[in-house]
Amino acid sequence: MALGDNNNSTLAAHLRTIPDPRKKKGKQFQWWHLLLIVSWGLLCGQKMVRGITEWAQEHAELILETLGEELPRVPSESTLRRALRYVDVEALQSEVAQYGQELAALAPCAPV
Q1: Is 72 exposed, middle or buried (0-12, 13-18, 19+ CB in 10 A)?
Q2: pLDDT band at 69 (very low <50, low <70, confident <90, very high)
Q3: Which pairs count as long-range contacts for 73-81, CB under 8 Å and 24+ apart, including other chains?
Q4: Which of 50, 53, 74, 107 could form a disulfide with 60 if both were Cys (CB 3.0 to 4.6 A apart)?
Q5: Is 55:41 a contact under the CB 8 Å cutoff?
């Protein structure tokens, strides 16, 4: 089962709920794929598009294996830059926060 399969407990499932604001013409990647790769890069400490792209290129084999046949290749820096212009930051923050709350409920942090 690839990560993109319909499993509501994954970050991918949460990102799939964010509407794709792009026009239909010329889409090479699913919207949630782009959001997931950006999210993974951010979670791994990358703060700039170039860093996220380099991280994705360095981990291309794992990314492609994880997402299965749904992802034809890792997106380029220019693709990620164009995509980030359209991101609904509030929707993205909301879905990532909801996913984080679900994870926290599964494994609550120990008291300090």
Answers
A1: exposed
A2: confident
A3: 74/37, 75/28, 75/29, 75/33, 75/34, 75/37, 77/49, 77/50, 77/53, 79/28, 79/29, 79/34, 80/34, 80/37, 80/38, 80/49, 80/52, 80/53, 80/56, 81/49
A4: 74
A5: yes
Q: How does pLDDT run across 17-67, given as a tens digit for each residue?
A: 999 999 888 789 999 999 999 999 998 999 999 999 999 999 999 999 999
Helix, strand, coil percent values for the chain (each to nearest 5): 60, 0, 40
Amino acid at position 69, single letter: E
What is the reported pTM?
0.83
Indicate the burial class of 13 (C-beta count within 10 angstroms; 0-12, 13-18, 19 or more): middle
| Tokens 């499932």, located at residue | 13
Q: Where are the alpha helices (DSSP H) in 44-109?
A: 49-58, 60-67, 77-84, 89-106
Joined together, the tokens standing for residue 68 give 């299965």
